[in-house]
Amino acid sequence: MENNDTLSRRTMVKLGTVGGIALLAGCPDDDDDPDDEEPEDDLEDVDIEEWEEVDEFYFEGVIEHWEGIEPEFIEGIENPPLTLIEGQEYDFRWVNGDGVEHNLEIRDEDDEVINDYVSDDVSEEGEETTLEGVEATEEMDVYICRYHEETQVGDIDVETE
Q1: Phi and psi, residue 20, nearest 5°
Q2: How many Å apart are CA 147 and CA 154, to the nearest integer?
Q3: Is 33 exposed, middle or buried (0-12, 13-18, 19+ CB in 10 A)?
Q4: How far is residue 119's CA from residue 106's CA, in Å, rounded to a whole number?
Q5: Listing from the earlier edge strand, what are the strands of the sheet with 56-62?
Q6: Residue 148 has pLDDT above 90, yes or no
Q7: How many CB atoms lie within 10 A of CB 148?
Q8: How far is CA 34 from the centre of its chain?
Q9: What is the pLDDT of residue 22?
Q10: CA atoms of 81 and 84, how far apart (whole Å)
Q11: Which of 8, 11, 29, 77 could cross-link 68 (Cys pair, CB 3.0–4.6 Å)?
Q12: By the 8 A CB rule, do 21 and 57 touch?
């Protein structure tokens, strides 16, 4: 009797595996589902005049990336490249999305922090902070998290009017 129970369990496992494979084979590719599509991260279609109207950026910070929330044209974009207008002031507001310690810094191409543009460290999920009064200068290259430099980094392009 014990042998039949083992055989029965083994048969059930095999049937479950075959059934699972058949089920997966019939599933559509996730890439074909329009609801699962990633937002386009190409901001080339955004007119310079739209960038000129921006004075605040709002992000969600998670280990994997900065995710754009506002302005609307960066919403859902991971590490969106930003266009700043030289001499204009900006606020960089962000919310901690994963409960891991993050900060936001503005750095030049030599990886040096510019004008002490460093936000508070935030480690509680849902907590927000703002780096206020960031004046755009040509030396600005990236906004970055000191703790996740490989993944939480976005390019900055400074335009002159």
Answers
A1: -65, -40
A2: 14
A3: exposed
A4: 9
A5: 65-70, 56-62, 89-96, 128-135
A6: yes
A7: 19
A8: 20
A9: 43
A10: 10
A11: 77
A12: no
| CA 87/CA 70 separation, integer angstroms | 21
Token duo for residue 101? 């310690």
Whether the predicted pLDDT of 2 surpasses 70: no
Q: Could you report the per-residue pLDDT of 33-76, keeping only the tens digit for each?
A: 444 444 455 677 788 999 999 999 999 999 999 999 999 999 99
Beta bridge partners of 59: 68, 94
Q: What pLDDT, in 10s, does the model give residues 131-147? A: 999 999 999 999 999 99
CA–CA distance, 80 with 75 (Å, rounded to integer):
9
pLDDT at res. 43: 75
* Residue keyed to tokens 């490989």: 150
Report the distance separating Cα 152 and Cα 32, nearest Å: 28
CA nearest 131: which of 47, 61, 51, 52?
61
Measured CA to CA, the distance from residue 159 to residue 137 in angstroms comes to 9
What's the CA dihedral at 14, 18, 19, 24 to 10 degrees?
140
Report the distance separating Cα 64 and Cα 73, nearest Å.
20
List beta partners, residue 113: 107
